[in-house]
Structures are given as structure tokens and as C-alpha cells.
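Reopening: Transporter still failing for me.
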Amino acid sequence: MNNNKEQWSTKLGFILSSAGAAVGLGAIWKFPYMTGMNGGGAFFLLFIGFTIILGLPLLIGEFIIGRSSQKEAVTAYKSLAPKTPWSFIGVWGVVGAFILMAFYSVVGGWVLLYSFMSLPGQIIKENANYPELFASLTGSPLVTILGLGLFVLINIIVVSLGITNGIEKSNKILMPLLFIFFIILVIRSVTFEGAMEGIRFFLQPDFSKLNAENVLYALGQAFFSLAVGISVMVTYSSYLKKDVSLPASAASVSIMNIFVSLLAGLAIFPVVFAFGLKPTEGPGLLFIVLPEVFAQMPFGELFLSLFLLLFLFAVLTSSFSMLEIITAAFTENKQRSRKKVALIAGLLVFLAGIPSALSTNLLTDFTIFGLTVFDASDFLVSNIMLPGGCLFISLFIGFKLDKSLLKQEFSYGNQLPNGLFHVWFQLMRWLVPTTIIIVFLRSVGIL
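Support: Ran it again with your exact input. Result attached.
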């Protein structure tokens, strides 16, 4: 182990930081609108199943790769399988993180701008039209690029300083606060007249609404919301001590992720149906529904501001992890300055994010296979790069890594039954890759 390597100071800090990296936009922003567009309760049930059966084992796998190697994504695979092509998984992850952060930062810019607007009370107004407000914000090229630039700038500043200590400390305070605010939001949402229809839509599965494409989206959402498949968690776990139980940590992150997704759905869908909005609204759903809820609460403007700031923090903790994997890949040997690499990577992310930022205005009519640049980037990462990365990682663990090393890392810091390791290993070797291949082939019409 590299004794000079920065490490998480506590198990809780690692778990909350990993949850922060995972939760972000995946559970809070993307999950509600993906559920709304893909059949409601049936999609949610599939998402839970994929998270537990596939996402959790993969998360343990990425944790093992990171901690056993004590290296960032690219170097981790090189050190565990020297002189083999397996290091391409790390490269795949860095490229995936770059594309993901480019369009993710556009949404981060929306959250940032909404946070600024909410402070002077520019959002909640009498007779306000919230869909129109969101459309006007995303319809301005200057405003969307400004939001993108400010969001990326915050990431550059924090990652260039080194994130472990600051993010770990702040996660311990702000992540629990986010949970508390979400619970308050849910309590208010489910008490609206007509809310029960939204709860039924979200929690009552109707499998007749599902098709092969919906199943692929549910798989992609499970991987997206856990941040597995692009080796972000490999980088995070490389800062981890040996006395931490990786299965227990992965289980905690997965449970938190499902719980936040549940809260997001219960906060959003009752309001959607109570106010006659469309559950298929798309990426703007959250920004339209939240003001509707807070406008009906005492001190609504204050609560909206606080919630948006906490939401912004959750989004930033995810984006920090993405920029960190890119930065760490080029500073592992200390030959390059972290600040310089973070600045260059951030500028490239900003430039790559501009077409996605313009997808809601100037480039609305420019499509790739019928999708805007924003939607195409999302589809590429969520439905191709993440499942692809997960497939490669499962094959690497199931057929390349030394089984005794896996068992050793799996067993550190816990007293789990011996059989649990073998169950996990068989899942990684057979069930995970087989399921990913079948779902993907069904979605493209081959099976």
C-alpha cells in the first residue's frame, strides 16, 4: 500500500461520500422522469431488482478492484493484470465519465441557476407558470452555457484542491439533511388532493406497459444511479483502509440509493397527478414539480432555496467523482500538476458540454438517430457505456482476477458466512454478464 496516499478517515465518511457520488442526479433528477416515461411501478420494480441482483455485486467488485490495487481506474487494471489488454476497462471508464460529465454538467447548471433564482424569491410567485419558467431558462443559449460554465468551474476549483477531506466532512452533514428535507417534501406531496393516483402510478406495477426497451432503460438507470460501470467507485475505494467491510459498504450505498429513489418518486408523482401535469414530461419534470409543492407550504420560498442548495450539493458530489476519475488518471504518478490537469479536463468538459446545453434552444432540431445531442449523450452513457463497462468488469472479476485475492478483499473487516463470497462470485461470473447481454440483445431486436 502507498503510505502517502490520501485515505478516508472513517467508514461512515466513505459510505456517505460513495452514496453522494452515486445519488446525485441519478436518483433525484433522472429517476422520476425515467420512471414516468417508462411505465411507472413496473419500471420501479425492475430498477430495484437490477440494483440488488446486478448493481450491488458490481459495486462490491469495483470496491475490490480499487482497494486491492490502491490505484485510480486505468492504473488499477494495469497493476492487477499487467501486460494484458484489460486496462482498456479503465480507459473505457475515463471516456465514459468524460461524456457523462459533459451532459451532466448541463443539468448541474440548471440546478445551480435555479438555486440562485430561488434566493431572492424569483421562482415561487402568484399565478406562476412553472413549465414556462423552465422552458424560458433552458431556451436561452446564453443562460444555459453560463450555468454549464459556472458548474464546471466549481468542479475545477474543488478537485484541483483535492476532494477527499472536504467532501467527506461535508457529506456527513449535508447528506442526512437532504434525506430529512426529502421526507418533509414527501409528507406534503402525498397530502395533496388527487395524490393517491400518483402513488398508484409509482408503486402499482403494470407489466403490460413494459417492453424490451423499457427493460434496458431500467438496467441503465440501476447502473447510472449507483455510478457503476465507469470505474468511479474503483477510484473512490482506492482511498479505503483494509478494516472496512466492502460488502457492507456496498449494501449501505445500494439501500440508500433505492431509498432516495423511493423518496424522489413519492415526492414527485403525487404532485404530478394532483396538478394535472404529465408524468412523461422528461428532463424538466423535477424543476416543474418542486416549485408547485413548495408554493403550497408555509415559508415555501425559504424551503425551496434550502432544498435546491442541498440538491446542488448532491449533484456536485457526483460530478466531483467524475472529474476526479479523469484527473486521477493523469496524475497517478505525480508527474503532472493536479491543478493543471483538473483545469484542462474541466475546460474540455465545458467545451464538450456546449452542444448538450444548446440542445434545448439553438440545436433543438439537430438530431443524432432522432435524438438531440443531450439525449444522445445520455443514451450512449446510460444504455451502452455503463452496461458495457459493467459487462467488462464482471468478466474481469469472474475470469481474470485471482480468486484468492477476491476472497481476501471480500472478507476484510467482516465476519460474513464463507458461502456468501461464493454466491457473489458466481453472480459476477455468470448472472451479471449473461443478464446484461440478454437485455441488450433483446433491446436491439436480436433476441
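The mean pLDDT is 88. If you still see a failure, please send the error message rather than a screenshot.
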